[in-house]
Design a protein that fits this description.
- By secondary structure, this protein is an alpha/beta fold.
- It has one domain: NAD(P)-binding Rossmann-like Domain (Rossmann fold).
- It is 39% helix and 17% strand.
- The protein has helices at residues 12-23, 40-49, 63-72, 87-92, 94-114, 148-166, 200-208, 236-248, 269-280, 304-310, 318-331, and strands at residues 3-7, 27-32, 54-57, 77-80, 119-125, 171-177, 179-181, 215-218, 230-231, 233-235, 256-261, 267-268, 286-289.
- It has a seven-stranded parallel β-sheet, with helices on both faces. It has a two-stranded parallel ribbon with strand order 7-10.
- Strand 2, helix 2 and strand 3 (54-57) form a beta-alpha-beta unit.
- The chain is globular, with a radius of gyration of 19 Å.
- It binds nicotinamide-adenine-dinucleotide and uridine-5'-diphosphate-4-deoxy-4-fluoro-alpha-D-galactose.
- Residues 85, 87, 125-127, 177-179, 198-200, 203, 215-218, 229, 231, 269, 292, 295 line the site of uridine-5'-diphosphate-4-deoxy-4-fluoro-alpha-D-galactose.
């Protein structure tokens, strides 16, 4: 059985990917320091697949932890989710981001090298396109960053590209996620942000269960159809499938390849709100507020390359996203603390 090390596998996207891996017969080994996750997710994964994934509580910056894992299991490949992702916090505490994300990735790559494991799928982000000149975005668009979080993703992408150029044994797939949303259809696992959510979907869902009073819509004067921001929302289980496809498509001349992971469709904040209200039967009050600093008007992907090269397309539509988001939130109004 193929053994895959999943760093950050207790987190939102990691836990859904672990379910997909295990259902496809892979042996998933999670290393996570639980900085932004809850060990309860392991019991939930057990309820879905019938087995608990192997779990090592530890930091990817800790070489001893990684050496122990690589020595205990013959790891065939790594999916690297571990990292911090809050844009605003990254502006306040840049060193926390460079340390966790960049130093963490370097530590992982060094351990992989020591143990002759050189296949890695990396969680990148559409944030590496900065403010794109047009949409849809293709992988060859210029890259830039407007905050330390985005900068950390760009730095890691650069490191991976340089390593692959220097040594053809390294095989890297960079998955540039657009906006991950939704939850596993069982309602047992989903996104459980600490504190007040930064992102749109968990915010809307928490208003619907009464944890928050109303949604603040950040700006209605963008050059979009209804004036609110437009994004490419991708179901987290489609994202999980993309990791599976990435693992299946490593090849000897692989080098370092980047793929957009989105649907190719853009939806506005108000369209998302309406679709959620329809799926949940709940009214979600909102008010129009000022633009959020650093936000862009519109972002959605062209996903032809991932279709051609890793045989992946998003299969779940907006109705499915909203149904699963509501199933998770209504069954777990307080997330994993319930
Ligand atoms: P998440 O916070 O739910 O998961 C990340 C996991 O990594 C958490 O369980 C956390 O405890 C763990 N972690 C953090 N630092 C660690 C460290 N130093 N050592 C070990 N574990 C550590 O976030 P997510 O939404 O699942 O995102 C996963 C990855 O995808 C991140 O790298 C993120 O930057 C990237 N990404 C996320 C989004 C998004 O909107 N969710 C978009 C694009 C890219
Ligand atoms: N929005 C609101 N109110 C909220 C939250 C968001 O109106 O309370 C709006 C935003 O202005 C934006 C849209 O909803 O127009 C989506 O915002 P999110 O915060 O959910 O997502 P972003 O596209 O701003 O950013 C997210 C992650 C980034 C990541 C990027 C691409 O936060 O880290 O997706 O993957 F880089």
């Amino acid at each position: 059985m193929k053994k895959v090390l999943v760093t950050g596998g207790a987190g939102y996207i990691g836990s859904h990917t672990v379910v997909t891996l295990m259902e496809r017969g892979y042996h998933a080994i999670i290393v996570d320091n639980l900085d932004n996750s809850n060990a309860e997710v392991l019991n939930r994964i057990n309820s879905i697949v019938g087995t608990k994934p192997d779990f090592i509580e530890g930091d990817v910056r800790d070489a001893d932890v990684l050496d122990r894992v690589f020595s205990s299991y013959e790891i065939d490949g790594v999916i690297h989710f571990a990292g911090l992702k809050a844009v605003g916090e990254s502006v306040e505490k840049p060193m926390r981001y460079y340390s966790n994300n960049v130093e963490g990735s370097i530590s992982l790559l060094k351990a992989m090298d020591r143990h002759d494991c050189r296949k890695l799928v990396f969680s990148s982000s559409s944030t590496v396109y900065g403010d794109p000149v047009r949409v849809p975005i293709t992988e060859d668009f210029p890259l830039s960053a407007t905050n330390p979080y985005g900068q950390s993703k760009l730095m890691i992408e650069t490191i991976l590209r340089d390593l692959a150029n220097a040594n053809s044994q390294w095989q890297f797939t960079l998955l540039r996620y657009f906006n991950p949303v939704g939850a596993h259809a069982s309602g047992l696992i989903g996104e459980d942000p600490n504190g007040i959510p930064n992102n749109l979907m968990p915010y809307i869902a928490q208003v619907a269960v009464g944890r928050l009073n109303k949604l603040n819509v950040f700006g209605d004067d963008y050059p979009t159809e209804d004036g609110t921001g437009v994004r490419d929302y991708i179901h987290v289980m489609d994202l999980a499938d993309a990791h599976m496809q990435a693992l299946l498509h490593f090849k000897p001349d692989h080098g370092c390849r980047a793929y957009n992971i989105g649907t190719g469709n853009g939806y506005s904040v108000l369209q998302m709100l309406q679709a959620f209200e329809k799926a949940s039967g709940k009214d979600v009050p909102y008010s129009i507020e000022a633009r959020r600093s650093g936000d862009i008007a519109e972002s959605y992907a062209n996903c032809e390359l991932s279709k051609q090269e890793i045989d992946w397309v998003a299969r779940r539509d907006l109705d499915q996203i909203m149904k699963d988001q509501w199933n998770w939130q209504s069954n777990n109004p307080n997330g994993y603390k319930d």
